[in-house]
Model the fold of this input.
Amino acid sequence: MAAQTLYDKLWQSHVVVQRDDGSALIYIDRHLIHEVTSPQAFEGLRLAGRSLWRRDANLAVPDHNVPTERVERSGGVAGIADPISRLQVQTLDDNCRDYDIVEFEINDRRQGIVHVVGPEQGATLPGMTVVCGDSHTSTHGALGALAHGIGTSEVEHVLATQCLIQQKMKNMLVRIDGSLQKGVTAKDVVLAVIGKIGTAGGSGYAMEFGGEVVRNMSMEGRMTMCNMSIEAGARMGMVAVDDITLDYVRGRTYAPTGDMWEQAVAAWRELHSDDDAHFDRVVELRGEDIKPQVTWGTSPEMVLPIDGHLPDPAKIENHTQREGVLRALEYMGLQAGMPITAIRPDRVFIGSCTNSRIEDLRSAAAVVRGKRVASSVKQALVVPGSGEVKQQAEAEGLDRIFIDAGMEWREPGCSMCLAMNADKLGAGEHCASTSNRNFEGRQGFGGRTHLVSPAMAAAAAIAGHFVDVREW
Amino acid sequence: MKSFIAERGVVAPMDRANVDTDLIIPKQFLKSIRRSGFGPHLFDELRYLDEGYPGQDCSKRPQNMEFALNLPRYQGASILLARENFGCGSSREHAPWALEDQGFRCIIAPSFADIFYNNCFKNGILPIVLGADVVDSLFRELYAAEGYKLKVDLEAQQVTTPSGDVYGFEVDEFRRHCLLKGLDDIGLTLEDAAMIRAYEQTARERSPWLFDVIK
Ligand code: SF4
Done:
């Protein structure tokens, strides 16, 4: 048999029907559901008089709209102040009850951001096809799964058939060899990748991350990288299974046990690209070359190392590019040529499905321990990715470290990543954010986002401007 | 689903690269549990000078007259001409819903983000990829002539300009078929229900842990 990539293997084992026109019916093992992209799908199912194909392949959790302030949160769904948000969360509860789908409700200890919850509960496993009506479903590829976001029509398609009609993607390998400098994290690596290939660089590809740096990376780090493969244009990111993967999965709530665990492990050991597998595109980076990254503009590809200076549109020849840089500088209220370290965040947000896992919180806490948030910073939010992460962090005393530094310790949810709840930026405010998108208005109308790692966000909160965490 | 066979309509410009889904329809409108009514909020942050919220009457809001789509010459447009990587960002289908609700049936760009591209077909919108230089020249013609219209023919896979230039485009056969016929693809898939059951049985024997129930 011809050598295969990890993606080829995952694809092949899930083909239900291969059609002559090049499309295929692909079986979906796990479907994750949240409140924003599912109501219209359930409604469609009802209107067409169709039933759910396989109830127990679904798992639901509200995350985008949930309040993160303890007071508002303590009232459960009924306590959500915004009536439109409340209705959306309530609709998820109602749909899950009607269709008998397991849901971790708003104040369940297991509730959290869907992409943190799936792997944490062992609901997403190596070798699975995983989908969710959310583009950051790519996160789950870190476990050696084929995971990607879908639209609401496809959510309905999966509910009704447990399948999707798909076209096979091309294969891309992003290989990062060598080792990382101290203070440089998975977030910096993936931002550097996006800076190199652009936000459309991965369009049409399934992206596998490999190389020594990735092999030595924790599961949390791998999830951060796969999470942002979509920001590099690739619907799916993935990492081969190894001992780090297996150690992570073992013992999780929905992970197999006993004989079945052994059987599963034997199959999972095959989940890597063959040595001579063909990739349509290979991108290589050296770990040593990567510095802490900060985005300055309104697209994740507008990213620079911490010692960089903002671009000068006058020096850009391509018209569309020049206009893009001009518009971004204007929106961000920044001057051409200024150093990244001169940018002063008004708010700091540590959270989101990119960087709200225990390792992320530990790395931020290590930076702020015993220090105080700069007086120029209006607010520094720390929002754990799930109730379990929150509990773990509190057991380690991380919450105290943040609170003592003048930061706010919140309840789990998407929060200021996209500002669908009350956590948002004011117009013109700059934010050091560990999330994944710096689009115009993403964190609030007129808000200005700078994407960074948790350690870099924490250091900026203390210093009042971006600083090089390697010298911290 | 609405079918798409051909469209002759006024073209409106969205002259910037990497137009993301947050720009197409900002997140506050995603709170709706309905599928319609997003049109007035299409490009909300560019289109109006104030901050929009769901359920408001947009006819009274201050419009940003520097935004091309607000200009009288582009009213009633059904074809959107755009730049590289249109629709990048989230998987929200609210983006094609908003475009469709506003009357757009076709988007022409040098490239699209994968998920958005796919979502268009599910909503009767045809996304067309044309070369960057072709798109460039279409932009020039569009700016030069008020009332500029294009003819898009999915059957023939061609875009025709007012001066008679014809550009062919590629589209995946299955998607083309579904769009031409306005087919419901869930219905199509369910015709293969027996194959899905058979797959499940084999997969269950091979990898039983994949069928451990969520409970
Ligand atoms: S944390 Fe942000 S990116 Fe992740 S699922 Fe929530 S809103 Fe989407």
